[in-house]
Amino acid sequence: MIHIQLFAEKSLEESLKFYQDTLGLSISGREIVADQGVEIAMLPIGESRVELLQAIDPSSPIARFIEKRGPGIHHICIEVDDIVAKLAEMKADGIQLIDEQPKRGAGGHLIAFVHPKSTAGVLIELVQRTEGDSLEH
User: Fold this and answer.
1) What was the pLDDT predicted at 4?
2) What is the structure's pLDDT at 137?
3) What are phi and psi of 85, to 5 degrees?
4) Across the 137 residues of the chain, what is the mean pLDDT of every consecutive 10-residue run?
5) Residues 57, 61, 64, 66: is their CA dihedral positive or negative?
6) Using an 8 Å Cβ cutoff, are 77 and 114 in contact?
């Protein structure tokens, strides 16, 4: 499953108006991930979901991204069965990783980022789904 990650420039609420009122999507969950400095709103679309990210810390990676590039698509997220094994495989293949070890992300899931230099310019987040969990919020 691929989750397309987006973020709001200044107001998650303003972005949600478009996704809810115009596109008819419903919020399945909201969460603050303090150690990443973001608030996340999750909106399912079929088998995938859109996540809107708003920086709550001006020094967070999302805040810096918005400051440099403006609002838009930040990264894509791909589910893997065993994130530790996948990271080891990627490292052995010479793929540049931002995170060599997984960390906790939204919903307490294990996540890690792959550097865009190794992915044709696309920031990729790997997420490990836990047994019985569909990553729905």
Assistant:
1) 73
2) 43
3) -65, -40
4) 71 90 94 93 89 94 91 92 97 97 92 96 90 51
5) negative
6) no
The residues, any chain, with a CB within 8 Å of residue 26's CB and separated by 6 or more, are: 20, 43, 44
**Domain spanning 2-128, CATH class:** alpha beta
Domain boundaries, the chain: 2-128
One-letter amino acid at 22 equals T
Q: Which of 1, 100, 105 is nearest to 53 (CA)?
A: 105
118 Cβ partners below 8 Å, 6+ apart?
Answer: 94, 95, 96, 97
Q: Do the beta carbons of residue 99 and residue 27 sit within 8 Å? A: no
Return d(Cα 54, Cα 52) in angstroms, integer.
7
Place of tokens 């998650």: 12
Please identify which residue in the block is written with the tokens 């960390």.
103
State the greatest distance between any 2 C-alpha atoms of the chain, in Å, as a whole number.
46
Q: Which two tokens stand for residue 18?
A: 């478009």
Residue 109 half-sphere exposure toward CB, CA atoms < 13 A: 25
